[in-house]
Amino acid sequence: MSGLVLKLGPRERIMINGVVMENGDRRTRLNVLTPDANVLRLRDAIHPDEANTPVRRVAYIAQLVLAGEADPEEGRRQILRGIEQLSQVFQDADSRAHLAAATEAVAEGRFYQTLKALRGLLPRETRLLAVRPAS
What we know:
Layout: E1 4-8, E2 13-16, E3 19-22, E4 28-32, E5 39-41, H1 54-66, H2 72-86, H3 93-107, H4 111-119, H5 122-130
Antiparallel strand pairs: 1-4, 2-3, 2-5
């Protein structure tokens, strides 16, 4: 059997194709058989007030498209524009790999993979924003 396997804890919430679902009182294992289903664990979701840094803003747009709350074509344009801006800052090889993966995924309309690739930049962004230039 192929597909995505979700292991959910008690009361854990997920969104599949824009529909929010909550698990019951016990741990559950679900097999998502439909290819290209849009699945997002809500514990991993970026909340609107958390989209307050450059990487988080671009990732949030991917999340909105994934959730069916934004037009895919407009989202694609905004994400690609954001990735271009991020590439001006993230110039190390590993960050470039994340940006290339995000670009490829968005070009193919795979917004979950776009979100996943962009999330890989969050620790680097946190470190960069924590460094303050000397006055």
